[in-house]
User: Fold this.
Amino acid sequence: MNNCKEIQGMIEDFEYNRLSLKNEEKFTGHILNCADCREEMEIYYIISYGLDDMEKNMSDSRYASYIDSFDFTGLVDQKLEDSGIKCQFIREWSYFNRLRYMFVTGVMLLTTFLLVVIRFF
Ligand SMILES: [Zn+2]
Assistant:
């Protein structure tokens, strides 16, 4: 798949939380279904680990336990799962905010309408 090159180029941005919500969903959606990219992601973590570059980004102890046991497959699984939860949370949150915004706007319009009615009729 031609898409793989693009996805694999996003691994580092994923790791550093630099992807937009849309891209992150695209990224995890692809990696979950593509063995090649998944392997590439594992290799990315193995190399980062080798370069000792990981600690700053691995403050989460759940991730650290995967690294301690050299379970990079598990680490990738956990990262993807967390990302899925995060994306869903953001989506629900923005949906909730939109509802709230619509509600506030509705109340304001109604108030304005009532004021006009009271004032002029
Ligand atoms: Zn792929």
Q: What stands out?
A: Residues 39 and 76 are 9 Å apart (CA to CA). The chain has a mean pLDDT of 90.
